[in-house]
Write a structure and sequence with these properties.
5 helices; 3 domains; mainly alpha; 146 residues; 2 strands; flat
């Protein structure tokens, strides 16, 4: 914050120009920040207040809470966190495909290709994954156009 105050004081930037991009650039020294996919909170705390990184604000990421404090954090704890993330991502894909199907069903435009196109806007997914999710979700999926 002192850096921002100095920039304003030196007339490098105007107070009205301070936005999320300026803050992100000053906080992290680059403009290409990726969204946070996984937050690991060690030490037994099951909250994220006063803990979230800037990039996680408003982002749909997976949080993994575990008992060991950071110095005792082991490989198995990391693998469990990754497994939790993978499970969460799979659930997210399934929900996206199911919602796309239900939406297209309401407007009478249900075809696998349309479900795929709508799902691809929200996540990276293959045709085969969409078909597999639809087979589990909708009885008689073979009636849909491939």
């Amino acid at each position: 914050m002192r850096s921002i105050a100095t920039l304003v004081e030196d007339n490098v930037i105007n107070v009205d120009e301070i936005d999320e991009n300026v803050l992100a650039h000053l906080f992290y020294n680059n403009n290409a920040l990726a969204d946070v996919d996984l937050i690991i909170r060690s030490g037994g705390e099951e909250r994220t207040s006063n803990f979230l990184p800037w990039q996680a604000n408003g982002n749909e990421c997976c949080s993994y809470f575990c008992a060991p404090y950071w110095p005792e954090f082991r490989r198995i704890d990391l693998l469990r966190a990754i497994r939790t993330y993978q499970k969460r991502e799979q659930e997210r894909r399934v929900n996206i495909v199911q919602r796309a199907f239900l939406f297209l069903n309401e407007i009478g435009k249900v075809e696998v290709e349309e479900v795929f196109n709508l799902s691809r806007r929200a996540c990276v997914i293959t045709h085969e994954e969409v078909k597999e999710i639809l087979r589990d979700f909708v009885p008689g999926i073979t009636a849909l156009n491939d």
